[in-house]
């Protein structure tokens, strides 16, 4: 369960020949064994598989596809109870 006290930090930095977008939250985090699957189409964590939870499990898959089409990459790291950080690396052309 998530409440309204959460926060989201978005930062953009230039590293060598790419721009890196960091999106970090202080939510519930992602279980380590789930991390390899978060960018797969239609995948949702077990807790998210309820009629009350909105979404189809497509957002991260679509984002990753767009990033890859621009020659970039996406990564994620997460700690249960602390939050998650997603990174988008886009080449500077």
Summarize this structure as a short list of keywords or feature phrases.
single chain; 93 residues; mainly beta; Heat Shock Protein 90; four-stranded antiparallel β-sheet; 1 helix; 4 strands; 12% helix; globular
The amount of beta strand, in percent, is: 25-35%
CATH topology: Heat Shock Protein 90
Radius of gyration: 14 Å
Number of individual domains = 1
Order of helices and strands: EEHEE
CATH class: Alpha Beta
End-to-end Cα distance: 42 Å
The shape is: globular
Describe the structure.
Residues 1-93 form the Histidine kinase domain. It catalyses: ATP + protein L-histidine = ADP + protein N-phospho-L-histidine. This protein has 93 residues and is mainly beta. The chain has a single domain, classed as Histidine kinase-like ATPase, C-terminal domain (Heat Shock Protein 90). It has 1 helix and 4 strands. The chain has one helix at 59-69, and strands spanning 8-15, 18-25, 73-79, 83-91. It has a 4-stranded antiparallel beta sheet with strand order 1-2-4-3, covered by helices on one side. The longest helix has 11 residues, at 59-69. The radius of gyration is 14 Å and the shape is globular. The chain starts with 7 loop residues before the first strand and ends with a strand.
